[in-house]
Amino acid sequence: MKIGTKIVLSLALLSSFSFAGEQFAMSDADRAMYSEMLENNPADMMVANGEELLAKYGGGEAGLAAFFNVSEEKLPAYIAGFPRYLPEFKQVVALDQALQGLMSKNGHKPFKLKSSDMYDMSAYAKSLANGQKINIDVNANKQMKAARAMGEEVYMTKRGGRGLACNSCHSPDVVGSILRTQPLPAIDGKGNAVAANWPAYRMTKSNMTTLAVRFQGCMNNALLAVIPLGSKEMVALEVYLTNEAKGSEISIPGLKR
Amino acid sequence: MSKSLIKIKPKKYKDGEVVKVNFMVMHPMDTGMGKDKKTKEIIPAKYINSVKFEYNGKVITTMNVWESLSVNPVFTTSMKINGAGKLSVTFTDSTGEVNEASIKIKPKG
Amino acid sequence: MQRRDFFKKVGAVVAVSAVIPAMSFAADAKKTVSKNAMSYATALNAITGGKTPTASDKVKLKVPEIAENGAVVPVTVNVDSPMTDADYVKAIHILTSKNFNARTIDIHLTPANGEAMFSTRIKLGGTQDVVAVIELSNGEFLIASQSVKVTIGGCG
To answer: Architecture of domain B4-105 in CATH?
Structure first.
């Protein structure tokens, strides 16, 4: 399996790889400038919008806590445990899906998962857990166990015209190599814990989206059939990568290239 | 209406202290030279062209702006805290749209 | 509303969540000419009225040597100045050497700013110089510039 991955990678991609340092020699001073930019994240405006939306459609923090049946004090730690199996939904759901439930319960038509209002609102809701460590429990019940296993399968399975898996580009042995000027980023807790800093603002797109939408971006680019938002497989993938980043400190909104 | 956000850094400051004022706007900053990928039509120019900062009614900073600022631009300047009151920012764009935002200034000690 | 009902509804929403094509970032077309097009030389002349600005280490211009993304290049200018009524920085002008309009932003300051600094993010259409021209209250002009290598154009 491992060897197979490497071979596929070298055949399909080697021509477009070069090693870090050759093309992408960024100095420490440059890096410092870019990290300073984190302090002025345009997504802060979107999160502020999300706060208004949650107040209007979900009764704010108090409404969200009541919906989850936890105290407001415990809400941040509870949010840091998503995706979760919620018996009312009879499935494992990501935070944005739970927010759809909240909106619906309050008599509002839920925002689509792929809508800027939902990105804003879910970013605000997740930002309530800023400073908390990701505490997803994949052994909480059989549904979570199954979701993690399915997520791992989605992550490792080679698909599409070029026979690539997520792991082909994000496994530790290729991370740092360069694909068309972009270094392949680590996306688990060992490098860049993506589950801890998405929703994030992407400067190349000038917008903020959720982690699942970012996954779809990679599926598109790597010619993998795009898994729909909210589907079992998509939530499972989020469960898998969130579990890989377990213990990382949540910091929303993120800021990406 | 453009959404905007004013932040003072640090969050707690004293009278006489020089602080950073961070102003962000959600704005497309269209240069008038870009094309819509789907319709292939030119997206008309729409960029912020002026920004004015007033502190308790006194103009402290003004800016003339052109197309080359990034989408959703950020403007950071300094300001010397000189009593409680209000900092307001008025910004206009090349289509004539005018917006205003403000924040309370509350020095501690 | 009955709890069971609304969860059914949510289920439906989840399933339907349409695949709307991702918002695309319109690329800057090369051929179109803006009425604002202005060369660097013309822009500099318009600012200084023909005076020659002095290169000065009082002006700290911070830009990355290599920009990750030409659409978002951080720029920070700090000028060493007492910012008193008698001696202050009147304006910071940021220019680019090769964008179709060299003028990027003018910041007019007053002593009430306390410090002469400005920071923003700009678009660079390709590798070029970013220039800060400083106008002092005594009428003098200072200048600092640095080149930025852009790996991907502002069309990211």
So the answer is: Sandwich (2.60)
Q: Counting one residue from A and one from B, how many pairs have CB atoms under 8 Å apart?
A: 28
pLDDT at B55: 97
Determine whether the interchain pair A33/C121 forms a contact, defined as Cβ–Cβ distance below 8 Å.
no
Query: What are residue C135's DSSP bridge partners?
Result: C91, C141
Average pLDDT of C50-76? 92
pLDDT of residue C12 exceeding 50:
no
| Confidence (pLDDT) at C11 | 39
Assigned fold of A11-256? Cytochrome Bc1 Complex; Chain D, domain 2 (1.10.760)
Dmax (CA) of chain B? 58
Mean pLDDT of chain C: 81
Q: State which amino acid sits at residue C97.
A: S
How does strand A200-202 pair with strand A254-256?
Answer: parallel
| Cα B34 to Cα B32: distance, rounded to the nearest angstrom | 6
The pLDDT, as a whole number, for residue A133 is 95
Give the residue extent of every domain in chain C. Answer: 1-36, 40-150
* ipTM associated with this complex: 0.94
Domain ranges for chain B: 4-105
Q: Among candidates A83, A74, A191, which has minimal Cα distance to A137? A: A83
Q: What is the homologous superfamily of the domain C40-150 according to CATH?
A: SoxY domain (2.60.40.2470)
Whether A116 and A207 have beta carbons less than 8 Å apart is answered as yes
pTM of the entire structure?
A: 0.78
Report residues of chain A scoring pLDDT below 70: 1-26, 178, 180-182, 189, 191
Q: What string of DSSP letters covers C88-133? A: -EEEEEEEESSSSB-EEEEEE--GGGSSEEEEEEE--SSSEEEEEE
* 8 Å CB contact between B80 and B20: no
Which chain B residues are closer than 8 Å to C28 by Cβ? 31, 33-34
Q: Check if A204 contacts B (Cβ < 8 Å).
A: no
Q: What is the pLDDT of residue B71?
A: 93
Most C-contacting residue of A105, A108, A215 (CB-CB within 10 A), to test interface: A105
Please answer yes or no on whether A206 and C62 come within 8 Å at the CB atom: no
- The minimum CA-CA distance between B15 and chain A, rounded to whole Å, is 24
Cβ–Cβ gap A181/C151 under 8 Å: yes
Question: Does the pLDDT value for residue C8 go beyond 70?
Answer: no
- Mean pLDDT, range B15-41, rounded to an integer: 90
Interface touch A26/C20, C-beta < 8 Å: no
Find residue A245's DSSP bridge partners. Answer: none
Q: Is A221 on the interface with C (CB under 8 A)?
A: no
